[in-house]
Each structure stands twice: as structure tokens, then as C-alpha cells.
């Protein structure tokens, strides 16, 4: 599913770059891509530090910085999109750096995936204690080490 998205986005980026290049010239198009990269990198730095400060404030107040962590992920993806040359990825990256659209992306993600994230079905537990099976049967009062994950 991811490969067709990459192909379509790449072809769309090439089409838009060629169309803009024909309209305003090749040098102007390259300069415009460079300018959007500089604007995006400064906005990325500002929003990243702002989110870091909010996360530290949440931890100082004794709250888990869950939303701030999700904002950090959106900022990271936005930064990657801004590093990719092209106008479509730059627009998506800049949208991810705007606080109002970032909260929209996070709310949309949580609405679509909350049931899958918080459900208990499709889970597995593997015991990695390393002892023999007879030792485990006789020592029922001891803690058991293990790993837990949920299947997607």
C-alpha cells in the first residue's frame, strides 16, 4: 500500500515542478523550492522547541506528555516532508507545522485508531524468564519476566 503512494506522490511532484517551471521559469522554481525549505526549517525549529517546552511543562505538572509526544511525531514527519523537494510535500509539511492543523491531524488519527490501540484482542505474551519448566511450576510466588505486544 505504501509503494503506490510513493509512486503517485513522486509523479505528482514532478508534474507540479515542471508546470511551475514552465509558468515562472526554471531558476525561479528552484529558488521557490529553496525559500520554502528555509521557511519550513525555521518554522520546524520554532514548533519543535515549543512542543518540547509544553512536554516539559506537562511533566513538571505530573501529567504524561502524550499529546505533546504525538505532536512531536507530526513535527518529525513534517520535517521529513519539508526536506523532500517539491511543492506538494512542502505544503503537507507546512500544514503539519501549523498548530491548528497539527491538532486536526492528531484528533483524526486518534478517532480512526483509538479502538485498535486500546482494544485487548490480538495480543500476545511471551515468557523470557530463561528457567526450566520444572522450576517455573514449583516457584509460583516468583515474578515472571516477559514481553507483551499487540498484533496490528
Features:
single chain, 152 residues, mainly alpha, 2 strands
Uncertain runs are 131-136
Tally of DSSP helical segments: 6
Beta content: 5-15%
The separation of the N and C termini measures 15 Å
Average predicted confidence as pLDDT: 83
Question: Can you tell me the overall shape?
Answer: elongated
Helix and strand run: HHHHHEHE
Radius of gyration: 23 Å
**Pairing-aware structural class of the strands and helices?**
mainly alpha
How many domains, in number, for the residues? 1
Widest beta sheet: strand line-up: 1-2
Helix content: over 70%
Largest sheet: 2 strands, antiparallel
Number of strands: 2
Question: Could you walk me through the main structural features you see in this protein, from its secondary elements to its overall organization?
Answer:
This protein is mainly alpha-helical and 152 residues long. It has one domain. Helices cover 74% and strands 7% of the residues. A two-stranded antiparallel ribbon has the order 1-2. Helix 3 packs antiparallel against helix 4. The longest helix is centred in the first third of the chain and has 35 residues. It is elongated, with a radius of gyration of 23 Å. The two termini are 15 Å apart.
Amino acid at each position: 500500500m505504501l509503494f503506490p503512494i510513493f509512486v503517485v506522490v513522486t509523479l505528482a511532484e514532478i508534474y507540479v515542478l515542471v508546470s511551475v517551471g514552465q509558468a515562472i521559469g526554471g531558476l525561479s522554481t528552484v529558488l521557490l523550492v529553496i525559500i520554502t525549505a528555509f521557511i519550513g526549517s525555521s518554522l520546524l525549529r520554532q514548533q519543535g522547541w515549543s512542543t518540547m517546552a509544553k512536554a516539559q511543562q506537562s511533566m513538571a505538572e505530573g501529567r504524561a506528555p502524550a499529546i505533546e509526544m504525538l505532536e512531536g511525531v507530526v513535527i518529525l514527519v513534517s520535517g521529513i516532508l519539508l526536506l523532500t523537494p517539491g511543492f506538494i510535500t512542502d505544503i503537507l509539511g507546512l500544514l503539519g507545522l501549523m498548530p491548528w492543523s497539527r491538532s486536526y491531524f492528531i484528533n483524526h488519527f486518534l478517532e480512526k485508531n483509538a479502538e485498535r490501540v486500546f482494544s485487548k484482542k490480538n495480543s500476545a505474551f511471551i515468557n523470557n524468564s530463561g528457567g526450566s519448566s520444572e522450576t517455573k511450576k514449583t516457584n509460583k510466588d516468583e515474578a515472571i519476566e516477559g514481553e507483551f505486544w499487540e498484533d496490528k
